[in-house]
Amino acid sequence: MVCDTFGRPLRFMLTAGQRHDNLTAKALLEGFKAEAVLADRAYDNNDLRQAIANMNAEAVIPSTRSRKAPIPHDQTVYRLRNRIERCFNRLKHFRRFATRYDRRAEYYLAFVHIAAIALWLR
What we know:
Blueprint: E1 2-3, E2 9-11, H1 25-29, E3 36-38, H2 46-54, E4 58-60, H3 75-78, H4 82-91, H5 95-99, H6 105-121
Parallel strand pairs: 3-4
Antiparallel strand pairs: 1-2
């Protein structure tokens, strides 16, 4: 999911449960203009960092421990990353979102859209 500076959802993709979200991060960022892209350590890879640089944005992503030469990040800006977590928590107030009772992915995704609209209207 991509959210704005106010923690409102902008774009989301549904992936298989066993698939890492890192694989869809570039597709989620396509077409956006941003000053900075905040993500946690799991999203630290050169391909995503290059996509963010092509957007003329700053990648505020802490380096993984396995990276030989750590890449510094702005820790003050990184503290704002909790807004995406807040967005997920507000979405989880909708029981249907949190439990995923829907068997079909398109039904679940349709409800995610409805829940996101409800967050925008608050």
